[in-house]
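Lab notebook, bench 4. The sequencing result for the construct came back, and we need a structural model before the next group meeting so we can plan mutations. Quick request posted to the team channel:

Model the 3D structure of this chain.
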Amino acid sequence: MDGLRWRSGQGIEGRILGERGSNFGAVDADGSGNAWVVGSVDSMGEDSTDIEQFPLALRWNGRSWDIHTPFEDSWDLYTSFKDRKDRWLTDRLTDVAVDGRRAALIGLRGSEDAGEISSPVLLTWNGRRFSRREYQRGGRFNAVDAGAGHVWIVGMSSSGRCTDSRPAIWHSASPGSAPTQTRLPWLGRGSLRHIWQNSPSDVWAVGETGTRQACDQYGRPGGPLVLHWNGTSWKKIKLPRWKVSLQSVTAFAADDVWVAGVDYGDDERPTQVTLLHYNGRRWTRDHRDVGGEICGDGFTITRVPTTSRLLLAGRAHCGDDTKHILHVRR
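Done. Here's the predicted structure in token form:
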């Protein structure tokens, strides 16, 4: 987007052997000449009709997209699918945050099939190459944010049993240092889904209590959870008794915070998209019509830099009728 309209960027078609499609789920930028996108590419082997996915990261340098395979940089993009598929099938990239020439990419290594335990992984780009750090098996990284040399990651810690899941935040305060788990108030079981840093002393995280995200993402929703970092400690911010699943958070200041979520009906199905606003003292909410049935609960909200605008993105309808939604609040 150039400030006035959306434009289609340069594609990657034909640059990866066997590529049949792509699914990119996270993007972040630090100016018009520095952006990252992470997700996966569908690829099919020369002698197979099976289509598999492997993780991929794209970096925009202001002129073109550079393609990275950060889990294994030594492999060439034209390596045959047959040779690489056994190593790629269990790796996933889920989010990215950009801070100047540095970028933090998070994901999972290992299968999430029944009886198997995956490991959260952080991939750090220093402007020239990736470094990789794996964390305790059984945990999960859900979102990352970065700025002013700080990196924040939210998710859950666990011994590997979903009923042991606890909300967790990892933080590093200087470039190149490894994020470590921070101390949180007692929250019980649950998971954090999104984080936003306004400054190193003004950080917001949202998620939910209970074990739905860990045990059964289609199960009964837990209670909403909002945390705030004031530069010294994390504090739980009290919410009204609303039956809402919180998905994403953004903020202009500590007294101007916005959260996107989904309300649930008595049958535990999502019914409407909800925007929550916090003015530093109390919460208000506003429901948004997305023109159809809500598909899951993946709605994202973000502020537009240097403006007072908000962007809300998600999906309406389901199956073959899925429609992508983008709302702008001025």
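The helical segments are 81-88, 212-215.
Will bring this to the meeting.
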